[in-house]
Design a protein that fits this description.
Layout (H helix, E strand, L loop, with lengths): L5 E5 L5 E2 L15 E5 L40 H7 L8 E6 L5 H11 L4 E5 L4 H11 L6 E5 L3 H11 L3 E5 L16 H18 L3 E6 L11 H5 L2 E6 L6 E9 L7 E7 L2 E4 L3 H5 L10 E8 L2 E13 L7 E4 L3 H14 L7 E7 L11 H13 L7 E4 L1 E2 L5 E2 L4 H10 L4 E5 L12 E5 L2 H9 L1
Helix pairs in contact: 2-3
The structure holds thymidine-5'-diphosphate and magnesium ion (MG).
Organism: Pricia antarctica
GO molecular function, one term: damaged DNA binding
GO cellular component, one term: cytosol
Amino acid sequence: MAKTKTTFFCQNCGAQYAKWVGQCSACKEWNTVVEEVVQKPEKSSWKTIASPKKRMAKPLRVHEISSDKEIRLNTFDLEFNRVLGGGLVPGALVLLGGEPGVGKSTLLLQIALKLPYRTLYVSGEESQKQIKMRADRIHPNSDTCYILTETKTQNIFQQIEATEPDIVVIDSIQTLHSDYIESAAGSISQIRECTAELIKFAKETNTPVILIGHITKDGSIAGPKILEHMVDTVLQFEGDRNYVYRILRSLKNRFGSTAELGIYEMQGGGLRQVNNPSEILISKNDEGLSGTAIASTVEGMRPLMIEIQALVSTAVYGTPQRSTTGYNAKRLNMLLAVLEKRAGFKLGAKDVFLNITGGISVDDPAIDLAVIAAILSSNEDIAIAKGVCFAAEIGLAGEIRPVQRIDQRISEAEKLGFTTIYVSKNNKIGLKNPKIAIELVSRIEDVVSGLFE
Ligand code: TYD
Ligand code: MG
């Protein structure tokens, strides 16, 4: 047997050192460098235990490679398909990250249960009974989904040989361990080795594998950064646990666009796909409350109408408070300064609270105008007329700037029954005869006189 080899890894970023150091020079974290055993007998195929025969790839010219045009496995979940770029590509490795409790296991179990293909759901986190309880809530009977609770990759591969699944789900990569590596499950070298074994399996058999990955406290996927390089697709499941909406984003996709977005609603019986997100994000109040304004935003490729609420009140303490939920606080300060300096509103001594409803966060600059409208509406205590929405950015000079995809934004507003939309004068609008009235504005004063006078 070869001599045991050890290396030091930073558990935070995955940097590798020949000897122990107190501070990782790559990520500057203290006390994260840990010794791990990286003794590796000769690297063998995932199938060694079952069949020792080795396959070898041959180089081919591009036109010789058979492409079997667009074979993608339908996951029977419109939102998941959309984010993947049209379905699962055979042999792809997909990594799904997200905070604890956001619903990663629920999402993948739900998809596994609905699939008409043979699916193997491997869990290292829950017992078969616990998964059964969850499954009963989501989708009572499924004939094709097999549940395995196992953490050793060699055993998993043996079960895969026996079951021959069309899709494999692993919950989660941090719980797996391989016999070829001696360090504990969840350590950098284990994660790397287990992922490498799964990639070999996926590519050799053309079976898609979906991995669940934990994320660290700063929001990146736990384990070495190279994990993200190794897999084909990285998805992120996000959402505030106190709200029911969840957003599935693609951070990397070798087989599709990363601009797509999937939206779900967490319910008693699992996650529901939300096909028309605008309707749920706008609260249905008819009384005309002051301080709310609707913005037409674009998240990824999807237009989305969101509601912005502002509360402006006289500050009780010396320093006025500015607080935001779902919106960048610095941007709010900038908009308040613009209102003060360019439009003459004295907001310097007022508390300003801003909230984007539904627990989602938005960084599309096109919601600036709606933010300003909500603030002014609360400040003046005059409600904005029903049916009015906004889509424009505000510049430092107080000018109203054009935004991209304006046609898409206007169409979405029109589709949802809005009657007026405020956009920048400089936006080129390509729509023919829209039913919605388009107010072209260039300065904040134009908006104020249109709304409140
Ligand atoms: P889970 O999938 O276990 O999260 P993760 O795997 O990302 O850690 O989701 C757990 C949460 O989902 C839990 O707080 C309860 C909620 N939930 C529902 O609201 N309805 C359901 O049908 C299920 C299965 C879970
Ligand atoms: Mg889980």
